[in-house]
Each structure stands twice: as C-alpha cells, then as structure tokens.
Amino acid sequence: CAFSAIARRxxxxxxxxxTSDSPLAFKALTVNVHKGFxxxxxxxxxxxxxxxxxxxxxxxxxxxxxxGTHRAHAxxxxxxxxxxxxxxxxxxxxxxxxxxxxxxxxxxDHGNALLSKFPIVHYENHDISIRGPERRxxxxxxxxxxxxxxxxxxxxxxxxxxxxxxxxxLRLACDLINSLPAHEPVVMAGDFNDWRGxxxxxLRDGAGLSEVFLQSQGHAQRTFPASMPVLALDRxxxxxxxxxxxxxxxxxxxxxxxxxxxxxxxxxx
Length: 269
Hints:
The protein has seven helices and twelve strands. It is an alpha+beta fold. Helix 5 packs parallel to helix 6. It is globular, with a radius of gyration of 17 Å.
C-alpha cells in the first residue's frame, strides 16, 4: 500500500498540549474556485470570491483549482494578486494554509489548498493522477484543534473526469484513511466529479466515511453548474465526527463566482 508508512511517519509529530478532549464544533467550507474566474472565464472574480468566503465564517476552507502562480494572468489582469491565490484568499483570517501543486505548465501551476484557523502541524500532497494529461491530487493536512489531544485529518481532493480514474483514486483515498490512527477524526472534502453517485458506497464500505448532506437530507447537494445546479459533484465526507448540520448557502453571489457552488457544514468532534 502506497500509504502504509504514513501512520509511522506522522507518529513523531509533536501535538499541541491540551488539558482535555473537550467537544469542539467547527465549520468547514469546500469550493472549486475555478482559478479565480467566473463561468466560461468571463470575469476575474477572485476579490469578490474572497469576500464571499469570509462571509461564511468557516474554520477550514478546502479549495480546488487554485493558482499558485500564473505569470500571464499577472501581466494581463490589473488586479491579479502578486501572491499565490490561496494566500490572497487566506489574507488575515486564516493564518494557516497548505498548498498541493497538481498541475504545472509554462505560465504557472494550480492545485488544492487548505485554509485553517487551527494550526497545521504537517501536510503532504499525494499525486493521484492515473494516466494521460489530467493531473489530480489529494492534499492531506494534520490539523491540531484547540482543546484536543488528538489531531484532525483534513483531506482536500479533486478527482478525475473519467469513471475508471475516479474508482482508482477513491481506492487510494481509502488506503490513505485506513493508514491513519484509529479514532482520529477525518474530514475529506472537494470536487469529486462523481455525477453518478458511486463514491458514497466506495468510501463508506472502504473507509467508514459518510457524506454530510446525504446523511442529513437523504441525497447529495447539487453544485454544478452553479447558476442552476443539476449535478452533485462536490462533497464533504467525515469519519469519527458528528455532523451538526449542513449549511445551505444562498445562491447569490456564489452563482457568479465560479462554475461550482460551494458546500459548508458544521461538524463536531
């Protein structure tokens, strides 16, 4: 197993001191930011997107399709940030962030990122590309919530467009989660591209994960396209955590900030 050594590798990492494992509720948000552009790349909307993400008031933000660098955009677009997009979105709200670069090209790169109000004590990006030009990644962060001796594992994913690729990537996700210490809570969120709804059973049977909207309302939340969602592509899965409630976000302004609508939930560990 490609992840068999992960638990041993993470073992020596220092945990933040805590006096007790008090119950903790936090909010998580996932959104495919479409590299900072609206649907069909009509407008650069990263500044508006930052305002919208701030307004939700979450503790963890899972980002997909976020630029690390893009030299051509930086030269062409007047308000293109001079720092990586994930740092721009984090600003002074989320002091901790991690980036997993998935795709590299002449002008720059993009991938997944996690923004966190809790300390990130370790992170690792796993290349889960199968074959061909489609580059995909799985960013695994170990987060230390306050008042807890055990860490939280936050995993940000962006799966492939081909069903056969997704099935292999889901098995890799199960391998990773099963390599983690038992009873340490897991939140895995992102763009699963799973319009057939086949990931639920694979992740439930293979790694004990449950999807927050499926658990709460009986079906996954539709997120694509953002202007009139018909496909449930984006998900939030948890293990050893309690879903207090999924958060239903308003259609505006999100329908003009990306081609994907975001998902958010309040979770307790």
